[in-house]
From TrEMBL:
Name assigned to this protein: Diamine N-acetyltransferase
Highest taxon in the source lineage: Bacteria
Lineage: Bacteria, Pseudomonadati, Bacteroidota, Flavobacteriia, Flavobacteriales
Gene Ontology MF, one: acyltransferase activity, transferring groups other than amino-acyl groups
Pfam families xref list: Acetyltransf_3
Domain spans labelled N-acetyltransferase: 9-174
Organism: Pricia antarctica
Keyword RNA-binding: no
Family matches, as PANTHER family: GNAT-FAMILY ACETYLTRANSFERASE, SPERMIDINE N(1)-ACETYLTRANSFERASE
Length: 174
């Protein structure tokens, strides 16, 4: 089982015990805009997802890890997605569920751990992130971690009756 430990958090593989946390997060309509979700998930569907979460990143092109606090309580998720081993790149995304766990270094530590894993273990050369214009906290987070704004995807997301631009950030291995 993959486990990456930081000073205040750890990233670990999803477990069947994470069903309730995953159900709460995936059905929280306030995060649907960034996750691309349009309908609720049933516990049954999420259990099937957890039953297959062990599949290899080279097979499913994604790695989703649970961000856990010191008590091993799930507080968020971090993903590598669109994994492309031929071109040595992947997307990275993060969600910390509750406001009380935000702006406390959780995101910074989680992304640093995942960047280290992606660049060293997976031998990736670059990571990219997609952030909605107006998501100032995420923009600040990725810039702080050395991601460069490389483009704007115009009218990329349709939400609440209007189109929104999305910023493309990129981090090259140094």
């Amino acid at each position: 089982m993959l486990s990456l430990k930081g000073e205040h958090i750890r990233l670990r593989a999803l477990e069947t015990d994470d069903l309730d946390f995953l159900y709460e997060l995936e059905n929280n309509v306030t995060v649907w805009e960034i996750s691309g979700t349009t309908t609720p998930y049933s516990r049954h569907v999420l259990k099937q997802y957890l039953d297959n979460a062990h599949r290899d990143i080279y097979d499913v092109k994604q790695l989703r890890l649970c961000i856990c606090d010191k008590n091993d309580k799930g507080i968020g998720l971090i993903d590598l997605f669109d994994f492309d081993p031929k071109n040595h790149r992947a997307g990275i995304g993060i969600i910390v569920l509750e406001d009380k766990n935000r702006n406390k270094g959780v995101g910074t530590e989680a992304i640093r751990l995942m960047m280290d894993y992606a660049f060293s273990t997976l031998a990736l050369r670059q990571l990219f992130a997609n952030v909605l214009v107006g998501n100032d906290a995420s923009i600040h987070l990725f810039k702080k971690l050395g991601f460069q704004e490389v483009g704007i995807k115009k009218d990329w997301i349709f939400s609440n009756g209007r189109y929104k631009d999305e910023i493309l950030f990129q981090k090259l291995k140094t």
